[in-house]
Amino acid sequence: MGDGGGGCCPPMDLFRSEPMQLVQLIIPIESAHLTVSYLGDLGLLQFKDLNAEKSPFQRTYANQIKKCGEMARKLRFFREQMSKTGVSPSAKSVARADIDFDDLEVKLGELEAEVVEVNANNEKLQRQYNELLEYKLVLLKTGEFFYSAQSGAAAQQREVESGLLGEGSMETPLLQERDNLVDSSKQVKLGYLSGLVPREKSMAFERIIFRATRGNVFLKQAVVEDPVTDPVSGEKVEKNVFVVFYSGERAKNKIFKICEAFGANRYPFPEELSKQAQMITEVSGRLSELKTTIDVGLSHRGSLLQNISDQFEQWNLIVRKEKSIYHTLNMLSIDVTKKCLVAEGWSPVFATKQIQDALERATFDSNSQVGAIFQVLHTRESPPTYFRANKFTSAFQEIVDAYGVAKYQEANPGVYTIVTFPFLFAVMFGDWGHGICLLLATLYFIIREKQLLNQKLGDIMQMTFGGRYVIMMMALFSIYTGLIYNEFFSVPFELFGSSAYACRDLSCRDASTVGLIKVGPTYPFGVDPAWHGTRSELPFLNSLKMKMSILLGVAQMNLGIILSYFNAKFFSNALNIWFQFIPQMIFLNSLFGYLSLLIILKWCTGSQADLYHVMIYMFLSPTDDLGENQLFVGQKTVQLVLLVLALAAVPWMLLPKPFLLKKQYQERTPSSWRQIMVHMTMRNLNLVRFLCTN
Question: Quick one: which of 74, 149, 170, 289 has the most CB atoms within 10 Å?
Answer without folding.
Answer: 74
